UniProtKB/TrEMBL annotation:
Subcellular localization, as worded in the UniProt entry: Cytoplasm, Nucleoid
GO CC annotation terms, alphabetical: bacterial nucleoid; cytosol
GO-annotated molecular function: DNA binding
Top-rank taxon, per record: Bacteria
Protein name (database record): Nucleoid-associated protein KAR29_07290
Function description: Binds to DNA and alters its conformation. May be involved in regulation of gene expression, nucleoid organization and DNA protection.
Alphabetical list of Gene3D superfamilies matching this protein: Nucleoid-associated protein YbaB-like domain
Keywords assigned: Coiled coil, Cytoplasm, DNA-binding
Length: 102
């Protein structure tokens, strides 16, 4: 009887995790650099889905600076995506008395 209950709980948690992962794929977080002149957008799974560069930043003499800004924005978007994912998955595992595994 207890094994049945445990199996049902595991199946329920698996379904919840699948829903959270689907939701995370639709979520968007941003990373900004250069006062918002460069923006990277990631989904909740950590994939970069868009990059926007303000035309004011584009100067052939400043390509290295632009590259640094893009890198900073992308890294910030990825960090925000990981934080979002950890928070969402942690909500599932904390309800089971488990530490955050993600």
């Amino acid at each position: 009887m207890k094994m049945d209950k445990l199996l049902k709980q595991a199946q329920k948690m698996q379904a919840q995790m699948a829903r959270v992962q689907e939701d995370l794929a639709r979520e968007r977080v941003e990373g900004l650099a250069g006062g918002g002149m460069v923006k990277a957008v990631a989904d909740g799974k950590g994939d970069i889905v868009a990059v926007h560069v303000d035309p004011e930043v584009v100067d052939p003499k400043e390509v290295e600076m632009l590259e640094d800004l893009i890198l900073a924005a992308v890294n910030e978007a990825i960090r925000a995506s990981r934080e979002l994912s950890n928070d969402r998955m942690g909500q599932l595992t904390s309800g089971l008395g488990m530490p955050n595994l993600f």
